[in-house]
Amino acid sequence: MISQAGRPDDGTDPKPINMVEMLVDLKPLKEWRPGHSKEDLIAQMDKALEALPGIEASFSQPIRDNVLESISQIDGQIVVKIFGDDSNLLKTKIVELLHLITPVQGVGRAFVDRAGRIPQLQIEVDRERGARYGLNVADIQDMIETALGGRQATQIWEGEKRYGVVVRFKEEERRNVDSLRGLLMDSADGSQIPLDQVAKISVQEGVMNISREAGRGTAAIGVFIKDRDMGSLVQEMQQVVQKNLKLPPGYNRELGRRV
């Protein structure tokens, strides 16, 4: 068995960072125990993995996976998409859509593609308050960039080699929101003011992945089929979604089938 955790370095597969892919080589079918089928094997592995909390398992084959992913970069035999501009509203609607189609007979597994939210540091510059201290947005952004990302302050020479010396906050201070709020800046009159006097600093939840298609925000669900033909399943899913999912103006959905 070979396993791969996270997304590949070359970016060729649409895998999130919280995914583990395991490739298991099976013995030739003629060597299997009598009466034992691939469906039985999958059911046993699925049951064993259900005992692990927080894990959602799906079973496929490498070549089929590559074909499905190459079509629209989303894993699944059926893909349902919602298009719109507000990422928060897209998240709400795609979760609502997931709850609608999961109970449909024949849906073996349905999941939101590359779902997840992560904490993000957000700094919003207050232009009016900055202007009172004689600071423009560029001045404030330069200070933030220096503290978090680092900026070259000088250079040192070692023989004929020259190296830039970068100055920035220590790692523990970069992770401390209070340290950022207390970052001192020089105002136009020479006095020093903390950063939180001219900017709003907070840690908020943001989307882990932003997907766009044809210039529009996109949220998608991948569906794997179990014990049902694709045609009738898609037809029933369309009826359920059309009847129960209400989208605001400017938003639309799309359902695609794969071979």
Account of the protein in words:
The protein is of the alpha+beta class and 259 residues long. It is built from 8 helices and 13 strands. It has helices at residues 38-50, 62-72, 87-101, 127-132, 137-148, 171-174, 177-181, 230-244; strands at 2-5, 20-23, 78-84, 107-112, 117-125, 151-158, 161-167, 184-186, 192-194, 199-207, 212-213, 216-225, 252-257. Strands 3, 4, 11, 12 and 13 form a 5-stranded antiparallel sheet that branches. Strands 1-2 form a two-stranded antiparallel ribbon. A hairpin with a 5-residue loop joins strand 8 and strand 9 (192-194). The chain is elongated and about 85 Å long. It starts with a strand and ends with a strand. The model has no long low-confidence stretch (mean pLDDT 84).
